[in-house]
Amino acid sequence: MHESMYQHKLFKENLAKLRSAGVHVLEPKIEEGKAKLASVEEVVQFVIELLGSRDMEGMRVLVTAGPTVEPIDPIKLITNRSSGKMGVAVARVAASRGAEVALIYGPGTEAPPSNVKVVRVQTTREMCEAFKRELKSPRDIIVSTAAAQDFAIERPAERKLRHFEPPTLKLVPAPRVLDEVRKLAPNAFVVGFKAEFKVSDEELLAAAKEKLGEGLDMVVANDVARPGAGFGSETNDVIIVTSSGSKVMRATKVEIAKAILDAAMARLRGRG
């Protein structure tokens, strides 16, 4: 309908009567002077929130997701194959359980949920800066799934490089997203992710334990070379490691997101 009709006094009064009678109302999108029906994804998410558990109400969750990119010139860049599916799943599940969620999102291909705060970034430095800004507000749970670039180009070209002038690229270490997390959020439950390639279970577990020693509460490690565990897959094959032990989980990314948040909530309740 036209926005003027939606904003009409009589329509608003009738809408208020429906709400007072217990009817749940999903607000439309106001675009181009019209009140447009919410998308299918928004309707599904709204219903999930109404029917699902609200055990995370009052929790403040920060998630990083997707890849980052580092420019070679104004057109070309280096990146990785991360789709953002895992982080988006965590953000969606946390929001559906009542949490207040902020998602720092690199250029992934998975659509983020409409009911969370989304902070768009491109480079690893931008992600780190956004992460620090978001941690100026208290957070209860931090889940860093982002596949941030480990290296950046030291001096990106200011113009497009042509095919007959191949550059010699000098890579320098990029900042690490979780480096200062314990100083910035000393009381948060912090989850990090570790991606490896063609390693044994023993090597994957050792890598996860090493990362856990960086002050994290949980590390979720996977070998992206394994079937059903790579970037863009709906499923994952992970080792979840905490100070109390480890477990293997082969499931959808949504199910893994639920397991991560369940463990975080159990630990936070135990602290209380």
UniProtKB/TrEMBL annotation:
<dbReference type="InterPro" id="IPR005252">
    <property type="entry name" value="CoaBC"/>
</dbReference>
<dbReference type="GO" id="GO:0015937">
    <property type="term" value="P:coenzyme A biosynthetic process"/>
</dbReference>
<dbReference type="GO" id="GO:0010181">
    <property type="term" value="F:FMN binding"/>
</dbReference>
<dbReference type="GO" id="GO:0004632">
    <property type="term" value="F:phosphopantothenate--cysteine ligase activity"/>
</dbReference>
<dbReference type="Pfam" id="PF04127">
    <property type="entry name" value="DFP"/>
</dbReference>
<protein>
    <recommendedName>
        <fullName>DNA/pantothenate metabolism flavoprotein C-terminal domain-containing protein</fullName>
    </recommendedName>
</protein>
<dbReference type="InterPro" id="IPR036551">
    <property type="entry name" value="Flavin_trans-like"/>
</dbReference>
<dbReference type="GO" id="GO:0004633">
    <property type="term" value="F:phosphopantothenoylcysteine decarboxylase activity"/>
</dbReference>
<dbReference type="InterPro" id="IPR035929">
    <property type="entry name" value="CoaB-like_sf"/>
</dbReference>
<dbReference type="GO" id="GO:0015941">
    <property type="term" value="P:pantothenate catabolic process"/>
</dbReference>
<dbReference type="InterPro" id="IPR007085">
    <property type="entry name" value="DNA/pantothenate-metab_flavo_C"/>
</dbReference>
<feature type="domain" description="DNA/pantothenate metabolism flavoprotein C-terminal">
    <location>
        <begin position="56"/>
        <end position="264"/>
    </location>
</feature>
